[in-house]
Design goal:
single chain; alpha+beta; about 200 residues; 5-stranded antiparallel sheet
Length: about 200
Amino acid sequence: MSNVPHPPPHAWYVVYCLPLKERQAAAALEGYLGLVVYLPEIRQRIRGQEQRAPLFPRYLFVGADLRTVGVSRITSVPGVLRLVAFGERPEEVPADVIDALRIQVERYNDAETSAEHDFQPGDTVRVKHGPLHGLEGIFEGSARPSSRARILIRFLGRLSNVEVDVGNLEGQPKPTPPKRGRRTRGKGRRIGRKQPTQLDSGV
């Protein structure tokens, strides 16, 4: 379920699942329809025990030929809500994107990260390494366990919440507000517009 086969299937699509039903949907798509499924999961520690959680909560990838397996059959599988689509047609994901994502997830799961940070909700952050390397998002707050954080990113044209290790985030500089011009001459006297003289007005 987490390993991408070679050669890849006909086409990859993004499946949007019910909350906390990613694994159920993945198992059903494989068991009921015989489809190839990739559910990217990253490791995390909860109460001293290592567990795995979806990299993209409520999303997974399915390889299918929609001419053979209709969209309605996929969306009728337990745990599945719909295929992500832009317009009327489900959006295809290139196979090399899936391959690259799989490699990055495996590397990320082998890396150690730090939990120290001083981010505040609303801060702009950037992912330093791993499958989301280079993406910018909005820091929303700490998740459980405390070494992880929630950020809001744009994923496949939609805003999506993603949990990442806080040690994998770096802050981005805030834009400097434009300087306002002086409006006083000192001692609180306001600068008014120059009144036209006879010479200025051409009279």
